[in-house]
Each structure stands twice: as C-alpha cells, then as structure tokens.
Protein: RteC protein
Organism: Phocaeicola vulgatus
Amino acid sequence: METSMTDRLLGCFAKAVREKKELTEAELSSAYTEFMNHLQSITDGGQPVIVKLRRLRRLELELETYRHRAFPVLEGLTDIYLTKAAALVRMETDLLHFMAEHPGLHAAPSSADEKTRNRPALHWKGSLANLMELVASLDYSGLVTDGKGNRQSFAALVAAFETLFNVTLPKPYDLRADLARRKKNLSVLLPKLRETYEKNIVNCGLDRR
C-alpha cells in the first residue's frame, strides 16, 4: 500500500515496516513534533470544517492501516508513537466536531482576524517546485518562528504557504528532495527574485518625492 509522505512520522512508520527494525527515540520524537505542528496547522487554518475533518480522517486511516490491516503490528517505541499519533488525530477530530456542534462557544474574532478575513485571496502563479524552493529556503534560514520565538518546522511552513496561496503541495518531502536532483541549477526562483528586486528597488519611492 502506498504511504503518504505528507508527514515525516508516517515515513518513519513506513521505514520501520519496510526494514523491520526499531527506530531511534530521537528520530521518532523529532518526527512526532512535526506531526503535532502539522495537525495544529490543519485545525487552526482557515479552511471549512468539512475540509479539516476530511484531512484528519485520511491521516487516521493511514495510521489505522499500520496498526490493523496491511502491515504487521509495530513494536516498542514505534508502537508507542503510533498509538500517540492516532490518539492525537482522534482528539483533534473530536474537538472539531464539538466546535461545529457548539458554535456559540467560539471566542469572538480579534481585530487581526477581521483584517485577515477582509484581505483578498492570494494565489501562486509559479510552479510548485519554485514554491517549494521558497519554502525550503525559509525553513533552512530559521527566520520564521511562532509567537514565542520557537523555530517553525518544515511541515508548519508548508501548511502556512498552502493556506496563504490557496494551493496544495503534494508529498512536500519528496518535492523538496527533487530540488536536490536538479541537474543545472539547484536554485531557479531565488536568482530571479534577486534580479527582480535589485532592478526595481532602486526606483522604490521615487514617485513620492
């Protein structure tokens, strides 16, 4: 059965099944943190509830596949993290159902929410590979953080850009790996952005003088 690479944690489970060996605590813990961030990006995003529930259900089905169907039962730390991941998805699903059933309990929207709601929808006109180049560059830079200054994971950045530009980046880890296999130039978009920036920034504000 084909395994989605939307989350690195699912890739870890696939590796454990394929190679039939236990994964390290560090590898599982890091992947689980990204998985939690990805779930939060789904539930906190601006998509309709039905879309969020559909994405969560797909994740739940993949996790159930490892536990009950196509693959043998995983053991040790891998089984523990599989159990935690499945429980986390179920919890987020239950919370979404609760929010849908009790809309009056939602907090009043902040001024920032109102501003976001009134903004025009943005759409990405370039290729998905070039968008991934931008996402990967920001990920490697470590410049994007949360409100507490904690560096955001690659999965969180992918989810944010998907929401920002109303686009889907399928199998983002594979898409990022494809960038390393470019034969001519590893970077295509960034040089163009630099050229465009340097060409136009010199005239910025001249019409206001």
Residues 1-5 have pLDDT under 50 and may be disordered. The CA atoms of residues 42 and 52 lie 6 Å apart. The chain has nine helices and no strands. The radius of gyration is 20 Å.
